[in-house]
Specification:
CATH architecture of the largest domain: 2-Layer Sandwich
Order of helices and strands: EEEHEHHHEEEHHHEHHEEHEE
CATH class of the largest domain: Alpha Beta
CATH topology of the largest domain: Ribosomal Protein S5, domain 2
Structural class: alpha+beta
Strand content: 25-35%
Shape: globular
Number of domains: 2
Bound molecules: cytidine-5'-monophosphate
Largest sheet: 8 strands, mixed
Length: 310
């Protein structure tokens, strides 16, 4: 730590959830991961993380907010693992300490990378708190050790992902996109959805299919209808097979005026793309009234990745 990088009192970081505009999946690899071709968009649903100084060797965590009881508040939490990993690579875990506080709004086990967002936020916050000088590429490499979606939660905006989804290239995207998110009253485990994908696709190619070219063209020109026509999720049949009533929710959103509806990532959150903000307000009203899900939220994308706010 240099003299100009003195430890600060407390750091707050906001990190976004994501939706996969396209998620193309290849056959499972020997390491248990699936090769992906995916387009991520970061959405304005944020978890906030506070990092407070603590005695060297102490790594504490408290969780508050929506579904907090579903998140482990111990060393297995991905944010704690992120803090320990950063410390380990920059002088050792015994040299630093931190008390983390997370306020959840991203759905837990919802297919929106909530845990990965918390890990991304912890890396950004602890680097600032401890005065560690780390460049964005190095931080994304650390993030990839924690989980496949963590590098995107750091990068944000819109990006094409290959490999496990952690090999990222920014994508040209014009305009803003208005989403309605339906949060069902069930959870879905990401590994379970990938396993069901394997059962349903025994002949999957080792190379994932490419993302639809029309999606990238639609994003580049800011054409929301073109984007909507080209949304694609290879995990959706697997998620629907594990949670059949999601099909009813998707149909309801489409019938109520969404341009398109998809399962977000491995689900169970269903994401509906709408023509504009007014359409999103109307759709969220209709979906809320149907009582098919636990909560309905509106969100815009793209937004930046994990950023310090105080
Ligand atoms: O990397 P992360 O821990 O977020 O991944 C959670 C699980 O999702 C993995 O253990 C794996 O079962 C599945 N996964 C996968 N292929 C990917 C990304 C995730 O099979 N590209």
């Amino acid at each position: 730590m240099s003299a100009s990088q003195a430890m600060t009192d407390q750091v707050r970081v906001r990190a976004p959830g994501k939706v996969n505009l396209a998620l193309r999946v290849g056959a499972v690899r020997e390491d248990g991961y699936h090769p992906l071709a995916t387009v991520f968009q970061a959405l304005s649903i944020f978890d906030e993380l506070g990092a407070h100084p603590a005695a060297p060797g102490r790594y504490g965590i408290r969780i508050a907010g929506d579904q907090a009881h579903l998140v482990p508040a111990d060393d297995s939490n991905l944010a704690v693992r992120a803090a320990r990993l950063l410390a380990d690579r920059h002088g050792g875990e015994a040299r630093y300490g931190v008390d983390l506080q997370i306020r959840k709004t991203i759905p837990v086990t919802g297919g929106m990378a909530g845990g990965s967002a918390n890990a991304a936020a912890a890396l950004v916050a602890c680097a600032a708190l401890w005065g560690i000088d780390i460049n964005p590429d190095e931080m994304r490499e650390l993030g990839a050790e924690l989980g496949a979606d963590v590098p995107f939660c750091l990068l944000g905006s819109t990006a094409l992902g290959h490999g496990r989804g952690d090999d990222l290239v920014p994508v040209l995207s014009r305009g803003g996109y208005h989403w309605v998110l339906a949060l069902p009253d069930v959870e879905l485990s990401t590994p379970a959805v990938f396993r069901r994908f394997d059962e349903m696709n025994p002949d999957a190619d080792p190379t994932p299919p490419p993302v639809p070219p029309g999606l990238l063209e639609g994003l580049a020109s800011g054409d929301v209808r073109r984007v909507a026509e080209n949304l694609a999720n290879d995990l959706e049949p697997a998620a629907l097979s594990l949670r059949p009533h999601l099909a009813e929710l998707l149909d309801a959103g489409r019938d109520a005026g969404a341009l398109a509806g998809i399962v977000s990532g491995s689900g169970p959150t269903c994401a509906f793309l709408t023509a504009n903000e007014d359409a999103a307000v109307r759709l969220s009203g209709v979906l809320s009234g149907l009582g098919l899900c636990r909560q309905v939220r509106r969100a815009c994308g793209p937004v930046p990745g994990a950023r310090q706010v105080a």
